[in-house]
Amino acid sequence: MNPNQGRIGQAILAQGLRHEYARYNAGRRSLVIASKLYSKKNRTPDDSDSLANGSNAIYIDKLYSKWSKDPGSVDQSWDAYFSGKPRSISSARQRQPKKRKWQPASVSERPASSATNPAPQADWKYIDDHLVVQAIIRAYQTRGHLAADLDPLGIVGPTGHSPATDDRKLQATRAVLRQHYSYIFNDLNALFKLPKSTLIGGDEEFLPLREILDRLERVYCGHIGVEYMMITSIHKSNWIREQFEKPGVINFKPEEKKLILERLTRSTGFENFLAKKYSSEKRFGLEGCDIMIPVMKEIIDQSNKCGVESVHIGMAHRGRLNVLANVCRKPMKEILSQFHGLRASDWGSGDVKYHLGLFTERLNRQSNKNVRITVVANPSHLEYVNPVVLGKARAEMFHRGDYQGNKVLPMLIHGDASFCGQGVVYESIHMSDLPAYTTHGTIHVVSNNQVGFTTDPRFSRSSRYCTDVARVVNAPIFHVNADDPEACVHCARVAALWRAKFHKDVVIDIVGYRRNGHNEADEPMFTQPLMYQRIRKLKNCTVKYAEKLTRDGVIKMEEYTEMVKKYDNICNEAFEESKKIKTFKNSHWLDSPWSGYFQGRDRLRVCPTGVNLKTLQHIGEIYSSPPPAEHKFEVHKGILRILGLRKNMIKEKIADWSLGEAFAIGTLVKDGIHVRISGQDVERGTFSHRHHVLHHQTKDNVRYNSLQHLYPDQAPYDVCNSSLSECAILGFETGYSMANPNTLVIWEAQFGDFANTAQPIIDTFLASGETKWVRQSGLCMFLPHSMEGMGPEHSSGRIERFLQLSDDDPDCFPDMCDADLVARQLMNTNWIVTNLTTPANLFHALRRQVALGFRKPLINFSPKSVLRHPKARSPFRDFNECSSFQRLIPDTGKAGENPDCVKHLVFCSGKVYYDLLKEREDHEQESTCALVRVEQICPFPYDLILEQIKKYKTAELIWFQEEHKNQGAWSYIQPRFDTTILKMEGESRGINYHGRPPNSASSTGNKVQHYSQYDAIMTGLFGELTEENKKRIKEIKEQEQKAAVQQSEASLAKAKQDKMKEGEKKAGEKKAGEKKAGEKKEGEKKEGEKKEGAKGAPPAPTGNANPPKPSAKAAPAAAAEPPTETSPSPARKSLAAEPPTETSPSPARKSTAPEAPTTAPSPARKPGQGSAPGNKPKLAQKEVTPSDKSNDKREAPKRAADRDNKQDKQDENESAKRLRKSEDEVTPNDPTSSL
Ligand SMILES: Cc1ncc(C[n+]2csc(CCOP(=O)(O)OP(=O)(O)O)c2C)c(N)n1
């Protein structure tokens, strides 16, 4: 600990004590007044004026006996009182306290040791009493919720454990709450001054202890348990106290009570009706937590009154149908029709009724304002909808320009077991205060039925409450007994007001029960017998509340009966109406309609993606420039060097990966498309290639993003470094992409491998969201991928997984006469999978995301070392108006020019192309080996593949991949190649695999093994290097090294020269300055006094200070358009129209024989034969594809060892070079430099 802290602490304490003593004296004086007032208030008419009555009598008796022995031993006010001296209140107040012998000295005056100096005399008991009362108040505020009466079943008490221990623990808790009770107080009627930290007194400053305890008990240990003392802001804690402590704060007017009952009646009535009509159907009823509907409605009412216009709801199964009917007011006949087993008349595979989404806009009668409500469709995976809802809400805030979250509110409904069990809850809550992810407060409601499926809380969580996860963000948590409707609705009201006032998260934990089993068909007595014995005896909360209101005279029983009947009639009418519904559309359950976007659009028309040279140069110029001089922005020297390199590229009209990406973003924002890139290191890029956000080197949090300053009317470009979460952040961005189609949202994984922690979002939202819920998303995932010896978890973005989730049929060859083949293929697949090799293709791929007439997720496997590969560059002409996205890049070299000479037609994808290019050159096989890049793997470019196969008539067909055989694209492309070949008359060749053998890990972690595998697969294709080749390569290498050394020496010399020049310049400037100063002095002498005007520098740019406004060009489709039904692609395959391909696979897929090990040579496989033993690709005879497992037993090929030695030497050289570099220089060619 910092010793100063201790001293500061002591000083504060001393000051505090002095203050306390001063207050003590003042307090004593006011006590007289207060006690008089209190006794006046409470006395009977014949009580006369005496204070010595009732609760005070004993206390005053004691004082009196003290005073009679020594009048100086009591306070002067009591002295005056007992001696009957007249003294006005004001004079008592004004009088300076006389320092008496017992008056406590100030801390500085106090003796050091009590042994030598006796303790100061004071009415210590009196002080202690007050301190203890304060402690008790604080204990109630902090821990009162532990003793609150929250469980309507009365089984699970505050501890969450069995009843027997509960009783004991409850007693113990209460004893703690009233900690000093037995020790000190023997008079509960004694008056106490209330501290400022409580509002239980209302207007009264003093209360008898009994009353204090009663009030605390009522506030903190009744049906509401308020957890808020972890909040560090006094202002916020006081606000909470105002909402719960103030006497009479929960005081509903009769009409409000009636409204609660009416809403409860609907909630219960809906479930009763469904239970009656569809007794055997799963509906995940709300019974036992019926109050959730009035709670949600109260939140919407209050928020709407406070200005909220749009509410985004995320919830799971429990009570969902009830929410749709009674909160969102979805026509009940449509909900009921879902029970009738209808077939959808539009496309899509649909989802179960309790997962479907909804969008509605209606007048809120309580506020008389319109409100839009969205329930986001969700998968069974509990809680994964949370980040999606948050992202969607945040996006709507952006498009509305609602930067404080005043108009948009996210509300998440949770189950108790899932709230504490699922990690995504923590990840989502943890985003709540992050500038780029905050929703300015989310209201969480837990429908806590005290059981998860069949598991008791004691076995499903270690935390006391299921809501403890929310404590990490200091959200106030209101636990409330579900059977006290007014307490629940009060909590809802406070939550809405809290969110409106503070824009922070808040939680309502409605503690209820589940009247039925997990679903209606379940028998809960199997697993929770005691609980359900109680539940069976329990009256429904609605009935109990109706009886209470009747007793209180708020309504008559007949009124309630009428209410129930009325709602039953509504249900019955809807039921009859629902029978008339013979068909339904999945699109009627869409949660994110983009009506204006689809209307009148030709979905198969793809807008051009190329742009003119002038635009590129404009963007390139700004992107390669440091912040304008007036910003006085200090840029890192390494960045200046990078900017210099960018500038050179602009001059040479050539783009690297970073420039290609920047061109895409720059041109999109120019067109009014809002671009957002989010992920763990996206500002700089994991491999340090991006640097979109520059950081001021001497000022904190001053940043500059040149792509935000391209055009005055451009759309905003947001670059968001995220929390270290993949799941919640990807979910958030998925939601963000759903709000408005005129947005390009990119999520980048640090390494593609880490996307697997976001798998539920990928599986349930991105891969299948459109099919299940007809909801589109154009989200783009960047997954850095390639085998570069970086180990098993830094190599593979798992292409195979994404391809396996692709829904295009491997046996369906597209109609080659279709003029819209490309767009139709894209429209009919669930997502696009690319593994690109050029910056221009990245540019077109990103722009195409927006140019399409629909939205599809793009899964792009992005490069690592290729980011800076000298060959991975595109000339500006590849971006121009005549250019477009290339699904496949053919060989345009010697092989392409003379296809008949080609022996090997090698298809590949991604970074391995550059390896092949180099090896082909080393082996001098440019004429005999054609390299064709499959840039878009899914949907498969059948037409282009077919062209290539036709072109190279006699070449062997090879699929080459660096991934292991059970990974990468092989299992996806193989059947599609077969289908293509089958289409070709007289074609007998088959596609042969060439790559690493199968492995359970995605790559080796051993560099030697990595290079040995690399050599083996390359040698397998190109054969061993000849001696001549080796000699030539050696010479080239030497030349390269020489050139590199020369270059580095030259740059060192230049740096030295620059430094010298700078020194000379500085010296010159110094001299000139001195000269000038001399001259100035002279001038001053001559001209007399001359004042200098202050110069105003333009403000430095900051990252967050001025969030960019949405461009007028970016039409906020979701925000501004009326909520009309969307009509998704008519051409999209419907369930009814699907050909029965599953049952009749094409001959090409019939083979199910097991694959032979890759090391075993076998004859070429014919199309449709699969890879059965004996069917091994011919090329495999030449392959050396060492099994990883046997590799250590075998001697690694000599070439690999050579390479390792070379690599070691190279590494040494590299590190020596790096040492020579100046400290602040970045190492742009090392992809791992940043790690
Ligand atoms: C991620 C995930 N794990 C398991 C399940 C299976 N499941 C469905 S509901 C449920 C219980 C959820 O309990 P709780 O969150 O308390 O909600 P309740 O059903 O009690 O309303 C379980 C385990 C699931 N749907 N999703």
From TrEMBL:
Identify the main location.
Answer: mitochondrion
Which InterPro entries does the record cross-reference, listed alphabetically?
2-oxogl_dehyd_N, 2oxoglutarate_DH_E1, DH_E1, KGD_C_sf, ODO-1/KGD_C, THDP-binding, Transketolase-like_Pyr-bd
Q: Where is the composition biased (Low complexity)?
A: 1111-1131, 1151-1163
What does the record give under GO molecular function?
metal ion binding; oxoglutarate dehydrogenase (succinyl-transferring) activity; thiamine pyrophosphate binding
Keyword field: Glycolysis, Magnesium, Metal-binding, Mitochondrion, Oxidoreductase, Thiamine pyrophosphate, Transit peptide
E.C. number: 1.2.4.2
Name a single GO biological process. Answer: glycolytic process
Q: What class of enzyme is it?
A: oxidoreductase
Source domain of life: Eukaryota
CDD domains, per this entry? TPP_E1_OGDC_like
GO cellular component terms, alphabetically, are:
mitochondrion; oxoglutarate dehydrogenase complex
Q: Where is the composition biased (Basic and acidic residues)?
A: 1055-1094, 1185-1224
* Gene3D superfamilies for this protein: 3.40.50.12470, 3.40.50.970, Multifunctional 2-oxoglutarate metabolism enzyme, C-terminal domain, TPP helical domain
Q: Which cofactor does it need?
A: thiamine diphosphate; Mg(2+)
Q: Does the keyword Phosphoprotein apply?
A: no
Q: Enumerate the residue ranges of region (Disordered).
A: 87-121, 1043-1235
- Cross-referenced PANTHER family: 2-OXOADIPATE DEHYDROGENASE COMPLEX COMPONENT E1 (PTHR23152:SF4), 2-OXOGLUTARATE DEHYDROGENASE (PTHR23152)
* Family per similarity comment: Belongs to the alpha-ketoglutarate dehydrogenase family.
Purpose: The 2-oxoglutarate dehydrogenase complex catalyzes the overall conversion of 2-oxoglutarate to succinyl-CoA and CO(2). It contains multiple copies of three enzymatic components: 2-oxoglutarate dehydrogenase (E1), dihydrolipoamide succinyltransferase (E2) and lipoamide dehydrogenase (E3).
Identify this protein by name. Answer: 2-oxoglutarate dehydrogenase, mitochondrial
